[in-house]
Amino acid sequence: MSKGRPTGWLLALILTWIVVYPIALVMVDSARGDAGWTTQYLTAFLTDSHEWGALWNSIWLSFASVVLAGIIGIPLAFVFERFEFPGRRILGALVALPAVLPPLVGVIAFMFLYGETGFVGRAVAALLGTQQAPWRLRGWGAILLVHAYSMYVYFYLFTRAGLAKVDSSMIEAAHSLGHSGRSTLLKVTLPLLRPQIGAAALLTFMTALGSFSAPYIFGGGFRVMTTQIVTSKLNGDIHASVVETAALAAIAFVGLVLFRRSQGTRSVAAVGKGTPPTARSLVQPLARWSAAAVGWMFAVILLLPHVTLLLVSFVPVGTWTTQILPPDYTLGNYQALAAEPERLRPLVNSVWMAAVATVAALAIALWAGRLIVQKQVVLRKPIETLTTLPWAVPGTVLAIALATTFSVNAPWVGRWVLVGTLAILPLAYMVRNIPIVSGSVLAGFRQLDPSLDEAAASLGASRWRIVVRVTMPLLRPALLAGGALAFATALGDFVTSVVLYTFDTRPVSIEILSALREFDIGVAAAYGVVLMLISAAAMVVGTRR
Amino acid sequence: MPTQYLQLNDLTKTFGDQIAIDSLTLGVERGTVLALLGPSGSGKTTTLRLLAGFERPDSGEILVDGRDVTKMSPAQRRFGMVFQHYALFPHLTVGENIAFGLSERSTEQQKQRVAEVLAMVDLEGFAQREVTALSGGQQQRVAVARALAPEPRVLLLDEPLSNLDPGLRERTRRELRQALSQTHVTTVFVTHEQEEAFALGDCVAVINNGALEQVGTARELYEHPETRFVATFVGRASVLSGTLVASDRVRVGTGIEWPCETHGEVSAGAAVAAIVRPEAFRFTDGVGVVGTVVERRYTGARAFFLVEANGATLEVEAPVTAAQMGDQVHVTATATRVYPEGS
Predict the structure, then answer these.
(1) Domain covering B236-340, topology
(2) What is the pTM of this model?
(3) From CA A304, how far away is CA B79, in angstroms rounded?
């Protein structure tokens, strides 16, 4: 199709401009001063032990998060995929719950729950008869706790999906060749799951490396790269923040390459077709009930942060002092959210910005998907890479890159002043959303029968009509699923917002933070609950078939 | 019946309220190949999975060399299994796949055995290859080699040729036959194609609805089918309903009586099903069943004619020139077998 070529170029250009160009500018800026090229800022970074410490912390914390999340997520996936026990279906769905909790909301829920003045903290203090809980939710331990809670979901979901595809005759073959259950697990099942486990490890590493909310709230004196960047930026030390951003981007890139390489090149796609193993009913009553008990206990632990948030959202300001449970409850916090224009504003902001960003990302994903599945399009491989690239860029890096690029007015090199305008946050959200929706939409495109397009064309339908009447309806599940996930992510965004927001465009996450600063925990929790509910509603719509 | 090397005694297996295998008793002589032949859903694959130990029977026992293996795990039985879709481990090379069942041997011994079985299936030098890079026929041979490598007591094959192109099937069948006869391993394989069963099996067990219909050589099954199912399932045959008039005469229409051989409990006057092979039919001039030729299929000098007669479709083998499409013809039979109606 000759028409495919120019559009391929145009999309590649747009994606390069909003994804690659800003990051390249940051890289260049890290080596430029007011008087041209210089290594002075780089040298300053390399000789500062604080910076080194933060860099090292970011790296080991990310690896530790991968290990911890894997230890929880992989066995859990086996339990839910391989055994049948009471409550398996509903628990299996609940276990993925942390995925709908925006990072900042999750962090404050943990604070209300496990913090020194949280429910568990107060209960333990009362039990021990002390004034305070015998721990402080601070430093790397607290960050790892939050990471494990929110990121084991990747391992759980990926491993389950992989297990569902493992051909049961592979396992039977190993048994009939004389291997025990344990040996089969180590030599056949786990190696077959390597692509999925590798993908989950990569995703966890990237998420942990870019994690900002947990270190920001719980870090205390424990510095990581993301918090360093934002601190430098807020302190007005632009040069330091740019060099730090470049360093984090470099680490992310190295991590990406290392994990990809460790996934191996050998294809493990099954030879021939097979049937997945069906879940084995646990017939022994003891095994049945202990599996169910472990499952339910886990579900309670998972649900506690959500319940905590809900409970705190009904607490009137200043009433919860020394009691284990808050003494008074009110709907006032929610009323304040709805009635006071200044309180409602951030909610409205977040919803419209997330919606615009999602729709824009969907449009780009559709455009890209159509081009990528056509063999004739020259730039299909680069376009596919460009749509997945923002995923490997920590949110803080992207925010600094966009702040750097779009704070200068130089239209002839593609730079306009967008920082401080309404456009910058939706733009940032959209760039972060592109990989999320593209992954889903592209998978949808690849399942489409290409002859459907040709059939429609042979029946005389125009290109637009094909897109609207054939492609879009068939892609609806993929569009909805990708769109819902993207919308929920953008709605709860904190990491890019904290760098790019203005007072007029402040999103909910920023407002939660300021409510916390004023010790207005009820309002902060109420915002969190509203975010959680909107995200959950979006996910319900998105996963409906 | 004396106990054979591999003996299945009264095996029964149900899934829910569905009976998959109904008190199946069957023996296989040491070093021979038994084909389990039956339509899909007949229970033949379940039988194979019971033998492999992937399923446990509700009752009955499986003996190998006189010893009960029913309660043993698949790993303890030392049976080799070739899966329908081969189930080669995609993360391992050809050599590693074959050595998978040899973990108790030293590395040197493993290497030697891998080379041995690869030679047996005509794949010398393939040990380092990726299994994903092999053709379907090569994958099938690797699967056989992997199952044979640990020198199994019994080899089981699930539809071993069903995944291959028709062109490749015949060659692979010959090679498989050769590999089996080289190793003298007692073998049970499952198939729904009689040609495959007859070509590979020393003995064929016909299974229907979870029960054994008949065991025998190809010739025995074709010439002396003990049940109506075997008579119609093995080889071509037409079915007519009729009445037994004497122990060797069956009436299939007014005044039309054919010679017959009776099976099962039938006495004169009973309603029976008469089974006729195509080669036992003759076209005649005005004698026998009247019908119309609706199809003629050439197979060289002779042809198969489909004749519609009184609601039955008769398949007649005759010289090509014997009749034309649309002709009104008379058909008679020189030999029939009758079974109780509804059996």
Answers:
(1) OB fold (Dihydrolipoamide Acetyltransferase, E2P) (2.40.50)
(2) 0.81
(3) 51
